[in-house]
Specification:
about 260 residues; alpha/beta; seven-stranded parallel sheet
Length: about 260
């Protein structure tokens, strides 16, 4: 392979922050960016998990609650030379039918999955602009932002996350900062495994007939992924690497669905 082609995916010299990087997709992203040469800080409310991953990849770990704007501002601004932000922190624990979802649960989904994007992107963008650095911001959205699945809180927040990335891309384009979104399909992450084992309570009542969201239509859709399988965490992380690297230097304001064709059927 020509060295110039291989260098397209190199992140040597880049300084990255991955929110929600203590487990699951965020952990996979942190590991991939580090393997590509980036200096990675993992921000998560799970301090022990963040420290574990950071120690294994030779990165840094900080406690970060993306719903706290003051803490997010202080934490992000403290990362010297930041030029790559991956807004991965999110939760689908606040899911359910509008018939039984408390207002507080709906609001938390918005706070974590949408407001958290603003809380972290604003100080990151400000730092990049003030430092004269062209950088990249990647928002981890979801196929649920394209097709209804988990309820008005999560689905609406993820749809808004896609539009947030599009709007921010136009906003920051004069500064050379690119912004894109990645929408994963079904990914078997540890949280789902813990729910199946009974360690964590299920997202939905045992009787799915109480909501059309988890009825036959949803079951049929999720069982008919054109590629015939769920995604590997690494496949989501590879998409983030592409959008973070010079291989995508002319790509901004896009939403890349990494779903095996899930949204096609």
């Amino acid at each position: 392979m020509d060295a110039s082609i291989g260098s397209l995916l190199s992140l040597d010299g880049r300084v990255a922050l991955v929110t929600g990087g203590a487990t699951g997709i965020g952990e996979g992203i942190a590991r991939t960016l580090s393997a590509a040469g980036a200096s990675v800080t993992i921000g998560d409310i799970d301090e022990a998990g963040a420290a574990r991953v950071a120690a294994e990849i030779g990165g840094d770990a900080v406690r970060l609650d993306v719903t706290d704007p003051a803490q997010a501002d202080e934490t992000v601004r403290a990362i010297d030379g930041l030029d790559l932000l991956v807004n991965n922190a999110g939760t689908y624990r606040e899911a359910g039918s509008i018939l039984d979802q408390p207002t507080e649960s709906w609001q938390r989904s918005i706070d974590v999955n949408l407001a958290g994007l603003f809380h972290c992107s604003k100080p990151a963008a400000t730092s990049m602009v003030e430092g004269g650095r062209t950088g990249t911001i990647v928002v981890i959205a979801s196929v649920d932002g394209l097709l209804p699945c988990l309820g008005t809180g999560y689905d609406s927040a993820k749809a808004a996350a896609i539009q947030f990335a599009r709007s921010l891309a136009v906003d920051l384009a004069p500064h050379g900062i690119r912004v894109n979104a990645v929408s994963p399909g079904h990914v078997p992450v540890p949280t789902l495994a813990r729910m199946r084992s009974g360690e964590l309570p299920p997202l939905w009542p045992q009787d799915p007939s109480v909501s059309g969201l988890m009825g036959p239509l949803m079951t049929q859709r999720s069982s008919n992924i054109p590629l015939g399988r769920s995604a590997e965490v690494a496949e989501i992380a590879n998409a983030v690497l592409f959008l973070s690297s010079t291989a995508s230097s002319y790509v901004t304001g896009q939403n890349l669905a990494v779903d095996g064709g899930w949204t096609l059927v």
